[in-house]
Amino acid sequence: MIDSPLLKHVQGYINGRWVGAQSGQTLxxxxxxxxxxxxxxxxxxxxxxxxxxxxxxASRIQPASIEQRKQxxxxxxxxxxxxxxxLGRIITLENGKPWKEAQAEAAYAAGFYRYCAAHIExxxxxxxxxxxxxxxxxxxxxxxxxxxxxxxxNFPLAMIAKKLSxxxxxxxxxVIKPAEKTPLSMIALFSLIDQIGLPAGKVNxxxxxxxQIGQVLCEHPAVRVISFTGxxxxxxLLIAATAPHIKKLSxxxxxxxxxxxxxxxxxxxxxxxLIQNKFRGAGQTxxxxxxxxxxxxxxxxxxxxxxxxxxxxxVGNGMEExxxxxxxxxxxxxxxxxxxxxxxxSRGATRVAGQAPAAPQGGCFFPPTVLRGVTDExxxxxxxxxxxxxxxxxxxxxxxxxxxxxATEYGLAAYVFTADLKRADRVVGMLQFGHVGLNxxxxxxxxxxxxxxxxxGFGREGGHEGLFEFTESQTIxxx
Length: 479
Ligand code: NAP
What we know:
The chain is α/β, with parallel strands linked by helices.
């Protein structure tokens, strides 16, 4: 069982109070590295969610000034840094990622609150310079209303930071639902937020039956925006469920990132970036490379560099020193990733790094694997692997690779490595992905907008664009 000063209350949080499930039922949170139960958490449903939405709506009667919101945002950022180690430990215990990486997630999360605090002035009303119709015109950025924030398990603190920072900046009260596999990091965050004296109802936490909680958020008239990060499958369910109610949605969905290496690239540099990008979170991030395209003449040399690096990676319990790759989140994830590798091998690919994974006992550890001879038709190329597997695919021509990289329903992240900046411009301009790394495998940052094209979703988090996600413009013509 987990013991933490940040988990004195392992409960939901509604209207400024810690609350359990009305049914008294609980759900076990499991440590993916050991299979042990960390803690039971309340299994909530429609009634608790309705209560949370109503508390949030009631809190709107007391708007907060920009200065007040700025102070809250900075306080939350400070608390992330002050408790970075313990927040990181809780993330590692319930998600599996290495402790160092989990602490970096806490610092990354703090960055979103800090950024929104620093730029909150942008939400002040704007008076138009022009005076059409002989009137004075002012545009106000009003809070949209109660917002529902639904997050996945792969970044238990960072994904809520992207949403909650912008919601607080806009003065929207929120009802938050974490993933059932990682609610403890969110509860720990609420124990910190509880210290800063937000008005009751401003932030609310429910967890449990995803479909029931989702249904209330989709149907309740007070909820005006749902911001969701997760699978494209659930994103589509939310689009359908909110359609009759006309709500604003912000959807951060799945990806299938190509990593393109031209033969004039710096191979060592590209291989280093591939390793950092691909094995973060054991390959379970939305911006993780899914397909590596290498120009034919460079394939042999680049693969060797990747393989030699992969062989140095240490897999194990994320709380152990020196571990770079933790377990996959659960047995379902393990079987899925194994299926992609077995499927590729049976269709003619070769495993050039990694070995057949042992059947999980306790933790679902998957050896970092490199496959050569992969083709565009294999499921590991067409679908999101979400595991530590690098499929290497060869290509010949520039025009050919643009078409192949774009041949996916997803459009989240892509990476291009080349020394020829003219070519880089041509290729990047044609890629249908919301985030492109040019000679870098780096992912999002609080200062820049991030989000997908095509079935990777819509809406942006981070940057000035993200700051406006929970606002509605109101134009006042003064006669
Ligand atoms: P998921 O199954 O879609 O779950 C995400 C969240 O949605 C969880 O809180 C889940 O609750 C909840 N949920 C499930 N069914 C729901 C419903 N009917 N109504 C309302 N909420 C519902 O995704 P995941 O497996 O946790 O996360 C992995 C996916 O997220 C990958 O595809 C990854 O690419 C994507 N992702 C995208 C981004 C991005 O920025 N674009 C970032 C991170 C991850 P339960 O956990 O309780 O089932």
